[in-house]
Amino acid sequence: MNPSKTVVIDYQTGNLNSACKSLRAVGADLLVTQQPEDLKSAARIVLPGVGHFASTERLTTSGIGDALRECVAEGVPFLGICVGLQWLFAGSTEAPDTPGLGVFPEVCERFPAGIKSPHVGWNSLEPLGESRLLAGLPASPYVYFTHSYRAPLINATTAVTNYGGAFSAVIERDNWMAVQFHPEKSGNIGLKILENFMKVSSC
Amino acid sequence: MLTRRIIACLDVSAGRVVKGVQFVDLIDAGDPAALAMRHAAGGADEIVFLDITATHEKRALLLDAVRRAADQIFIPLTVGGGIRSLEDAMQVFDAGADKVSVNSAALSRPELITEIGARFGEQAVVVAIDGRRNSGSTEAAQVYSSGGRKNTGLGVIEWARQAEVRGAGEILLTSMDSDGTRSGFDCELTAAVSAAVQIPVIASGGAGNVGHFSDVFTRGGADAALAASIFHFGIADARTLKEELAAFGLPMRLPC
């Protein structure tokens, strides 16, 4: 048991480098793993994600999904990034045959036709009420996005971004936290968000 | 609001920056990692390393620079030049790049775009297009490969569309007619490509003053613009450039 570890889930897609580097930069002691057992000893869990929704299938088949649900229910703070946010939903039209974790019952969809996609670049966050992740940040901070699918607004949305309409950019409910943008690529603002996550106490 | 991006591009040869910005207080102004950090702190939205020699023997030097830069900058880093295979791309991603830019290799084997996208996500694949139209129409603009030495006979707009279908995440369009002239981007060509595809277009070649950037964002419909040599000509850093563009009413990220 090592409850000081921040466990980063590696599901063998894209590269984890950037996420790991930025977490280390804010003082996280990392354990990068593909094994569900490793989640049991986690103080915090991070699921970075880039790429196709279909690649999240591995999370379900490996048992990581079930293990994660248990840990977060027991009070371990979780942060999902990009596809790691979308995976918390019931699914995505990007891969209709791949179910998400289903923490939230809605489905992620592609940006509407007629707007450039992927949504690439720096866009602003518009906070809705209280946010633990955005504590201490300036109003409407800019963060770096790159994605073609997005999550709808739900009760747990704590910040929206506008691009082809408003979508969920930050979600926080109890120990489930997720961001659509890449805090690891969002300069000092991103590092501050990761630092905030590292300070969140479980609830 | 989604901002227009200013991307700082560094030409790297054998692991050293050539014709880089001369920051007087920088101990090693030829070090790509040190310059990348300076540009990131100076307000650039992204950094591009373009390996202009890209020989097999010198690859390790570039990868070392990528590794050191990626350790210290927390904004997107793209690496281009000499990416000929999925293996080349993997090395660069392993070293810490967020995107790769492919050019000649994608022209001779367009599947490369799809292969890299399938492994690292489409957002990670930038297709660089070197186009020249002399004084012809934008439809007549043709794609050049091998560092601009070889006319492929392929239309710029046609290739941009094909690259999108193959799964490119962005297009980096360099106008060979404008490159090095400091007389402005090719706004017409940029606008034609931008209208032909649904993915973001980065404009490159010809920047000489702030007005040129403003033009390519408005008339040219560019989503981002590459700034390389402009920092030589009286504009200190990306922040200064962005402040002036923001004053024109363009959405810019002004770093805090």
Describe what this molecule looks like in 3D.
The complex is a heterodimer of chains A (203) and B (256). Chain A has a single domain, classed as Class I glutamine amidotransferase (GATase) domain (Rossmann fold), CATH 3.40.50.880. Chain A has 5 helices and 13 strands. Chain A has helices at residues 17-25, 57-61, 64-73, 83-86, 187-199, and strands at residues 6-9, 30-33, 44-47, 78-81, 89-92, 104-110, 119-124, 126-127, 142-147, 149-150, 157-162, 166-173, 176-179. In chain A, the strands form 3 sheets. Chain A has an 8-stranded mixed beta sheet. Chain A has a 3-stranded mixed beta sheet with strand order 5-6-10, with no helix packed on it. Chain A is globular and about 45 Å long. The longest helix of chain A is centred in the last third of the chain and has 13 residues, at 187-199. Chain A has 203 residues and is of the alpha/beta class. In chain A, helix 1 links the parallel strand 1 (6-9) and strand 2 (30-33). Chain B is an alpha/beta fold. Chain B has a single domain, classed as TIM Barrel (Alpha-Beta Barrel), CATH 3.20.20.70. In chain B, 35% of the residues lie in helices and 22% in strands. In chain B, strand 1 and strand 2 (16-17) form a beta hairpin. The radius of gyration of chain B is 17 Å and the shape is globular. The A-B interface holds A 13-15, 17-18, 21-22, 25, 50-52, 116-124, 138, 142, 144, 146-148, 162-163, 184-191 and B 1-5, 40, 45, 70-71, 74-76, 93-94, 96, 98, 120-124, 169-170, 198-200, 223-224, 253, 255-256.
